[in-house]
What we know:
The chain is built from no helices and 11 strands. By secondary structure, the chain is mainly beta.
Amino acid sequence: QVQLVESGGSLVQAGGSLRLSCAASGRTFTDYTMGWFRQAPGKGREIVAAIRWNTGATWYADPVKGRLTISRDRTKNTVYLQMNNLKPEDTAVYYCAAAWGLIAQNMGVATQYRYWGQGTQVTVSS
Length: 126
């Protein structure tokens, strides 16, 4: 059974940094794409970043380019989201997700991801 467990969310001031972690277990993730999504109050779930487990190739949503970095440690089965220069509009619940065999143009589509974590809250104060 696949489990994704996020951690690292916190309250931080604008301009600060956080690193989120997603511990993945229950299978090998060869040929999987791992994604970070977020959902702010009253808004839909949106993609933040994604990474190919095998190659490390990454993809970012435009609002976070240059501030957020996704990475993975295959030895620890963990995916990270380094968040720098945080803004109040980054406030949301952040979710880790996994999808098998995604083509590039679907990396940002939430419905393509089969497995989801429970989420971790990030709050950025102004």
